[in-house]
Amino acid sequence: MRVFSLNLIILLAAILPVHAADVFLEPNVFLAEVFEGDVPSPSFLWLKGDVKETAKEILGRNMGGLRQRYWQADGRTVWIVEEIGKTRPITTGISVKDGAVERVQILIYRESHGWEVRYPFFTDQFQGMTLDAERETSSRVDGISGATLSVRAIVKLVRLSLAFDQLARDGS
Q: Which of 60, 80, 81, 85 sits in a 20 to 30 Å window from 109, CA-based?
């Protein structure tokens, strides 16, 4: 039995792709940077009713969980959200101030391709974006060749964070 188990482990290790998560910035460090060291207590947006439907419309699937944690102070909300790029989640921190994107930061990247989305040349283009009436970004996002799925995931997360910011400010 031990030989079988050992052979199975070796076989799985050989055929399953392995890619460790690249932690570019710890979520607690991102929060400290955005709130200049004075991080407020988290609040929660309950994923039910309009909130749940909004998330489903933007993500194209049901969002897991019962609530989304966020931090709020001085007209700013911060969202730490995840979306699958090709096969693995991309953890992203998004700061929204007065209804517009203030900062997008890739925190943890787990995919084997498309990691270029972490660089400022990509993330900086979201600054100042808002949502239009159809819940699309107010301006076009330039993609990255070879990182299409990661780009799409980040755009969804920005749209989701902006929509959640509106809902949180409206008291949903």
A: 60
pLDDT value of residue 64: 87
**Domain membership of residue 114 as a residue range:** 19-170
How confident is the model over 26-56, as pLDDT tens digits? 999 999 999 999 999 999 999 999 999 999 9
Residue 162 is assigned to a structural domain of this protein: yes
Q: Cβ(79)–Cβ(96) under 8 Å? A: yes
Number of domains within the chain: 1
CA angle 137, 139, 142 (to 5 degrees): 100
User: Which run of H or E residues covers position 46?
Assistant: strand 42-46
CA distance 161 to 19: 27
Region label for 111, one of left (φ > 0), alpha (ψ between -120 and 50) or beta (otherwise)? beta
Task: Round to whole Å and give the CA distance between 145 and 124.
Answer: 17
